């Protein structure tokens, strides 16, 4: 039975969802660890015991293996790997991206993936490098879409899900076009392909633009898989864009290189004097004993996978609580390029606010970036609906004044609000430090929108003199009054 995708909770564009075929279920966001059947440093059964509900392996490698090909065909993939959850198989596109060619056709890889009982199968798409020129990108995208249509047409997909990889290089219009074409095919599971080079070179700003473009083309009910995303420091950013699944061998590759993962980056094990984690590995070893252990690589892999899975749970809880923006802000300040990606994501605020939830647990102001969050943009839209009468006051002193048809208090970065809304979100659930110029400028956007929506109303802003220039520059339609302060 093909997998269905149900969205249970939302925050920004992030979702908690359920991917299910009636027997096997994957709670999203989720990580699909990569399994190399030749060298499983952590076995699939061990991963399942750790809470892993889905994994990914390479059908091309299995099909070319004298050791595993016949076993997979005879026993089925789940029995061969000893894993009861959802298994996704890659077609050989990874090898195609590395070596430039593979000895298998699109039809052959689809039929082999079906034969071994894969739950999610992938056609032989062309993973175009992000820096490829447009003409080549267009040609290879056409091949990918042609192969996907071929796979969608000749194969019986009743017992598995056909994935629709979204390619298009760095060209946002092509990514959006690919997403729209795949959506029209009726596919419900779409990986975003050829983005690993962006993550390997910390080009998170480009990654954000690529993902957001693809999401514009994809229907909202499609489960989105970000191919090759494996470091926990960037998961929150990816989830905020609407990515539901990740796959990576980073937990093992980092361990092989002696690297110790954390949610804010990675360390070489020899750099550590202490282990900043309480997983089973770290609670039973010191940094020195782990460094000297003959089983160091496996222990590091176990730690890395534990940290990665824990971050997935942390993101799920942030979505449920409506505080995903705070988590994204925290994680993205761990690296300058992640911060660039975060700031780029904020430029898509008008798109994101359409998907974000209306009410949340809290709003924490964390600097200039907070002024561009969806909650602030939505509040500025709401300001235009306030009733103001002929003469209205916006006061910074939080005191009720007489002689006006309407009195509004002021709270940056949102702007004016009637006293009746002082306990509602986001005014009552926001924590704001000492006012700074950027948050007051943002609040003035709300004042100006109130004035523009009511051109026949005289709006007076009563404030201290230190804010006078900012108000006059950012809310020129109002009158500033410095009296009685």
From TrEMBL:
Q: Which cofactor does it need?
A: Zn(2+)
List each copy of the tRNA-guanine(15) transglycosylase-like domain by range.
Answer: 14-336
What is a single molecular function from GO for this protein? pentosyltransferase activity
Q: Which SUPFAM superfamilies is this protein grouped with?
A: Pre-PUA domain (SSF88802), tRNA-guanine transglycosylase (SSF51713)
Catalysed reactions, semicolon-separated: guanosine(15) in tRNA + 7-cyano-7-carbaguanine = 7-cyano-7-carbaguanosine(15) in tRNA + guanine
Q: Per UniProt, which keywords does this protein have?
A: Glycosyltransferase, Metal-binding, Transferase, tRNA processing, Zinc
Q: Which parts of the sequence bind substrate?
A: 125, 194
Active-site feature positions: 90
This entry's Enzyme Commission designation comes to 2.4.2.48
* Xref: Gene3D superfamilies: Queuine tRNA-ribosyltransferase-like (3.20.20.105)
Question: What is its pathway?
Answer: tRNA modification; archaeosine-tRNA biosynthesis
- Record note on cofactor: Binds 1 zinc ion per subunit.
State whether keyword Repeat applies. Answer: no
The residues that hold Zn(2+) are 277, 279, 282
Which GO BP terms sit in this record?
Answer: tRNA wobble guanine modification
**Function recorded in the entry:** Exchanges the guanine residue with 7-cyano-7-deazaguanine (preQ0) at position 15 in the dihydrouridine loop (D-loop) of archaeal tRNAs.
Q: What is this protein called?
A: tRNA-guanine(15) transglycosylase
Organism this protein belongs to: Methanospirillum lacunae
């Amino acid at each position: 039975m093909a997998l269905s995708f149900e969205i249970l909770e939302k925050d920004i564009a992030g979702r908690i969802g359920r991917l299910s075929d009636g027997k096997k279920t994957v709670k999203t966001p989720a990580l699909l660890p990569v399994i190399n059947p030749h060298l499983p440093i952590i076995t699939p059964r061990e991963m399942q015991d750790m809470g892993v509900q889905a994994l990914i392996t390479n059908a091309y490698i299995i099909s070319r293996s004298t050791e595993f090909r016949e076993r997979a065909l005879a026993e089925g993939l789940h029995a061969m790997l000893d894993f009861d959850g959802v298994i996704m198989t890659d077609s050989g596109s990874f090898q195609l991206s590395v070596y430039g060619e593979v000895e298998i056709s699109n039809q052959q890889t689809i039929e082999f993936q079906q034969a071994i009982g894969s739950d999610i199968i992938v056609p032989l798409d062309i993973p175009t490098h992000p820096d490829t020129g447009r003409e080549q990108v267009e040609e290879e995208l056409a091949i990918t879409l042609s192969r996907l249509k071929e796979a969608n047409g000749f194969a019986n997909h009743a017992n598995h899900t056909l994935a629709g990889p979204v390619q298009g290089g760095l060209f946002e219009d092509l990514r959006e076009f690919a997403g729209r074409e795949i959506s029209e095919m009726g596919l419900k599971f779409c990986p975003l392909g050829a983005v690993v080079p962006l993550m390997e070179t910390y080009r998170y700003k480009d990654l954000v633009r690529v993902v957001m473009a693809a999401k514009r083309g994809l229907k909202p009910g499609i489960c989105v898989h970000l191919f090759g995303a494996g470091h926990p420091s960037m998961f929150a950013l990816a989830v905020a864009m609407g990515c539901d699944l990740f796959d990576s061998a980073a937990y093992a590759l980092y361990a092989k290189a002696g690297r110790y993962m954390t949610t804010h980056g990675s360390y070489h094990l020899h750099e550590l004097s202490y282990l900043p984690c309480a997983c089973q590995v770290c609670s039973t070893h010191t940094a020195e004993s782990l460094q000297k252990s003959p089983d160091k690589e496996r222990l590091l892999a176990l730690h890395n996978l534990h940290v990665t899975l824990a971050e997935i749970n942390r993101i799920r809880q942030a979505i449920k609580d409506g505080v995903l923006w705070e988590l994204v802000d925290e994680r993205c300040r761990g690296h300058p390029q992640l911060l660039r990606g975060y700031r780029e994501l904020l430029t898509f605020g008008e798109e994101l606010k359409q998907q974000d939830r209306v009410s949340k647990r809290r709003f924490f102001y964390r600097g200039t970036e907070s002024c561009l969050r969806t909650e602030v943009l939505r509040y500025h839209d709401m300001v235009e609906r306030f009733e103001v009468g002929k003469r209205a006051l916006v006061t910074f002193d939080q005191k009720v004044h007489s002689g006006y048809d309407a009195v509004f208090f002021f709270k940056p970065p949102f702007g004016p609000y009637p006293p009746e809304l002082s306990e509602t979100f986001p005014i009552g659930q926001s924590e704001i430090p000492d006012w700074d110029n950027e948050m007051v400028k943002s609040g003035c956007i709300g004042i100006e929108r109130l004035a523009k929506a009511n051109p026949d109303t005289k709006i007076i802003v009563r404030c201290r003199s230190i804010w006078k220039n900012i108000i006059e520059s950012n809310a020129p339609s109002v009158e500033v009054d410095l009296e009685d302060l």
